[in-house]
Amino acid sequence: MRILILSAAISLPLLGACGTTGGVNSYQKDMDALEAECTRSQGILTPTGLQTGRPQTEYACKITGGATRIPPR
């Protein structure tokens, strides 16, 4: 009986730490901003093959639309 109470007292706080906070992590925020910027440039994100923990180095924006140096009006 004591073992059951002791194991429950130890495991419940540990299981609570596994829950999500409901917020968006910084990687996802950076990824969303990168995707929005790339979409504005009429491009798509393509993986570079690197794994750095930073979306800016893990993905490149491949321009698929009419690439021009003249800004749109």
TrEMBL record:
Is Signal set as a keyword in this record? yes
Q: Which PROSITE patterns match?
A: PROKAR_LIPOPROTEIN
Specify whether Signal is a keyword of the entry: yes
Swiss-Prot/TrEMBL keywords: Signal
Give the signal sequence positions. 1-16
Q: What is this protein called?
A: Lipoprotein
User: What organism does the UniProt record list as the source?
Assistant: Brevundimonas intermedia
